[in-house]
Amino acid sequence: MNDLVLNNGVKMPQLGFGVFQMDQADECQRAVEEAIGVGYRLIDTAATYGNEASVGRAIKNSHISRDHFFITSKLWVSDFQGDKPTEAIDRSLKQLGSDYLDLYLLHMPYGDVFNAWRALEQAYHAGKIRAIGVSNFTADQLMNLELFNDVKPAVNQIEINPWNQRELLKRFCEQQDVQVEAWAPFAEGQNHLFTNPILSQIAQAHQKQVGQVVLRWLMQRGIVTIPKSVHRQRMVENFDIFDFQLNADEMKMIESLNLRRSFFFDPRDPAAIKSIVGGGRPGANQD
Questions:
Q1: Can you give the pTM of this predicted structure?
Q2: What is the pLDDT of residues 63-83, one digit of tens each?
């Protein structure tokens, strides 16, 4: 497993396990337990997923020391105002059965972002969170947050996959020493990703699956990623990506697939913002 070092010195595994849309408590707990058995130690959840408690039970049942895990959760926009962020952080810790979080993110760049971020800063300084960051922030939103606050975000978790490679935002984050993390690495299989001729050709050359090629491509771009699956075979495949390398030509072949558009939502679209703030939960099944 590769570890990357965040801008505050905290080490973060480059490959993790996502639990978005695992709404059934038993299913989520079982899936996380199986993922831990495969070898995953970075587990990514969020308050709005409604499964923090299931993740916490799976970690407890593993009988593996807490300090061997890297647990991420996120603050939803409905908890950005007033004292709600502090209450939400404590609620996540209780749900997860942990004294601290390794990473805690602002889930969306809307609402009272500054109030929420300063609550994260306080929790960070208090030792409740080892690193704080954001999700779905564009370059201008990230810069605005940096300029008016004390602690720079350690991570920006955004949609990245072969159809939406986010090369400009990735470059900006790198210039700001903010680690990029990808959600929806497989684009939920949209646009026939798993049967794409170019990806299939590369997979055959390495005797791998298309999903493994996509994850390897992300690894070689220095991106953290959190594929999700409820199937143990897929968990094993997704974890088995450290024994091959894509060459420069293959990386360029994947680069040629970039459509520079999302199959899920545009974080700057007014209709999407209205839906999110009104209680919607856009995004992707990260399988």
A1: 0.95
A2: 999 999 999 999 999 999 999
Superfamily of domain 12-277: NADP-dependent oxidoreductase domain (3.20.20.100)
Report d(CA 277, CA 148) in Å as an integer: 23
145 and 245 in contact (C-beta within 8 Å)?
A: no
Is residue 238 predicted with pLDDT exceeding 90? Answer: yes
58 alpha carbon, distance to own chain's centre: 19
- The model's confidence at residue 280, banded by pLDDT at 50, 70 and 90, is low
Amino acid, res. 254: I
User: Residue 25 — pLDDT band, cuts 50, 70, 90?
Assistant: confident
| Side chain identity at residue 151, one-letter code | V
Instruction: Give the helix ranges, DSSP H, for the chain.
Output: 25-38, 52-62, 84-96, 113-125, 139-147, 167-175, 197-206, 210-220, 232-239, 248-255, 270-277
d(CA 82, CA 115): 7
Is residue 71 within 8 Å of residue 60, measured between CB atoms? no
Count of beta carbons in the 10 Å neighbourhood of residue 60: 13
- With beta carbons less than 8 A apart as the criterion, state whether 211 and 202 touch: no
Q: Which positions ≥6 away from 25 have C-beta within 8 Å?
A: 51, 53, 54
Q: Could you give the CA distance from residue 175 to residue 159 in angstroms, rounded to a whole number?
A: 19
DSSP state of 67: G
Determine the Cα–Cα distance for residues 222 and 239; give it in Å rounded to an integer. 16
- Residues catalogued as catalytic: 49
